[in-house]
Design goal:
This protein is an alpha+beta fold and about 160 residues long. The protein contains three helices and seven strands, in the order αβββββααββ. Strands 1-2-5 form a three-stranded antiparallel sheet, with helices on one face. A two-stranded antiparallel ribbon has the order 3-4. Strands 6-7 form a two-stranded antiparallel ribbon.
Length: about 160
């Protein structure tokens, strides 16, 4: 069998073995360890053929975690369909439970604010980012303002004539 495989590899390139397909339509292949026609040792590879091969159409999460772990060599055997379905249902249950907990927490916070057990969060208005050079500096307004004994003209400045 290795002689036939060697002939096929030499004639058509690497022989890849289809391992599985996920629910997105991505196909996963295994290329076994082999020797090139020059006698060089080529180690085994794992690869994916995406359902949408255009690079701009790739989105994060288009390869399930289980398959990505197999491709990167973190697991020896490819995932089964049952394992994928079980893990997906577990993830959905966790999302639902997290949503319920968040709703309960928001309701509890609202109740505590109403009863006065917790002070309402301070609402500060800060423009910009703390690392910006203009952060915390008072901006000059377009209109002149007057407070008590201090008068501050607007941002308009006369042009210098040269």
């Amino acid at each position: 069998m290795s002689k036939i495989g060697g002939l096929l590899r030499r004639a058509f390139g690497a022989v890849r073995e289809h391992v599985g397909t996920d629910h997105f339509g991505n196909k996963y292949y295994f290329i076994p360890e082999q020797k090139s026609w020059t006698g060089r040792h080529i180690r085994a590879k794992r690869m994916v053929e995406p359902a949408n091969p255009a690079e701009h159409e790739y989105m994060e999460g288009s390869i399930p975690m289980e398959w990505e772990a197999w491709i990167r060599g973190r697991r020896k055997k490819p995932p089964s369909v049952e394992e994928l379905m079980g893990n997906e249902s577990q993830r959905e249950q966790i999302k639902l439970k997290a949503k319920e907990v968040e709703e309960k927490d928001l309701a509890l916070q609202a109740k505590e604010y109403e009863e006065g057990l917790v002070a309402a969060p301070a609402r500060t208005v800060a423009k910009g980012h703390a690392s910006a050079t203009a952060f915390g500096k008072v901006e000059l307004s377009e209109e002149p303002t007057s407070t008590a004994n201090k008068f501050q003209p607007g941002s308009w400045m006369p042009t210098s004539k040269k």
